[in-house]
Design brief:
278 residues, alpha+beta, 2 domains, four-stranded antiparallel beta sheet, 4 strands, 45% helix, binds flavin mononucleotide
């Protein structure tokens, strides 16, 4: 049953689903991941602190570059603090009712502290220091989401946290060389089944031996048509600026999204907290 459900979910998501082996191990977890979707609407029910702590521990069991462990999670438990942070996220209306919020942080501070304590120079003060901590935090975030969804919770990452990196860092007391990667909204989902968000076909994003995007324009056009037919956007982005498109496709939406400047101050923030990005 699980294998059939995995096939159906992957077919719905990618269009060109693989032949899922009948005897695959861990089919139930794979099915859950294949069927997953972000959750932006929650029940008015608290997640027990023990469960949240367990999910954080599971998330931090994920791989970490060179065992450096350059990521931390800040659970926001104080209701007044939660209200303050939610205030910064308010332009995304759904965040107003988020029951729990965690901030996933990259942390290169600890590594630098080790150098001080052990008396060795930190000779890698360049882009990689920021990049490694970012990757570690992102891996922990993704693992947290998978774990939380397996435990029956709903989640949605929130990168809008970075639109207010200075303010939110100050509120939760982040020191230099520690930065917010994203928030994660967590709670018991209001709906039973999340919607499956379609992805680009696997032939576009999974390469064998050599990267190949020779068919990319056609692949995106086909994907646009598939999404438009099955899951059209409810609204168009900034029609006052871009007009109203007759066919409002994924590629039009994504091109409009990054036609408007966003987070232009983030690089300056990262430099201010001590990173060299060269
Ligand atoms: C790092 C990251 C940041 C995200 N930030 C936001 C956000 O600020 N607001 C939001 O509604 N969704 C956010 N999302 C969720 C994505 O929009 C979502 O994963 C994507 O649309 C695919 O949908 P799915 O998760 O249901 O498959 C974020 C996801 C990631 C991985």
């Amino acid at each position: 049953m699980s294998v059939k459900a995995i096939r159906e979910a992957l077919a719905a998501r990618f269009g060109d689903a693989p032949a899922v082996p009948e005897d695959i191990t861990g089919a139930d977890l794979l099915r859950r991941i294949a069927q997953r979707g972000s959750c932006r609407s929650f029940q008015d029910r608290a997640v027990a602190p023990d469960l949240m702590d367990t999910l954080c521990a599971v998330a931090l069991s994920s791989p970490s570059k060179s065992d450096l462990q350059q990521r931390d999670i800040v659970q926001i438990r104080d209701p007044a603090l939660l209200a303050q942070v939610r205030g910064f996220l308010a332009p995304q209306l759904w965040t107003g009712a988020v029951p729990h919020l965690l901030i996933f942080c990259g942390n290169n501070r600890r590594q630098r502290q080790l150098h001080g304590w052990r008396g060795h120079a930190f000779a890698n003060d360049h882009l990689d220091a920021f990049f490694n901590a970012t990757a570690d935090a992102a891996i922990a975030l993704a693992t947290f989401v998978t774990a939380a969804e397996a435990a029956g919770l709903g989640c949605c990452p929130i990168s809008t946290v970075r639109n207010h990196a200075e303010d939110i860092s100050a509120l939760i007391g982040l020191p230099d060389h520690v930065f917010p990667l994203a928030g994660v909204a967590v709670g018991y989902p209001a709906a039973d089944t999340p919607a499956i968000s379609m992805r680009l076909p696997l032939r576009t994003t999974v390469h064998i031996d050599r990267f190949d995007d020779t068919q990319i324009q056609q692949d995106v056009a086909d994907y646009d048509a598939r999404r438009l037919a099955r899951a059209p956007y409810a609204q168009q982005r900034s029609p006052e600026r871009f007009g109203t498109a007759e066919r409002y496709t994924w590629s039009e939406e994504k091109a409009r999204q990054y036609a408007l400047p966003e987070r232009t101050g983030f690089g300056a923030f990262i430099r201010r907290i001590g990173f060299r990005l060269d």
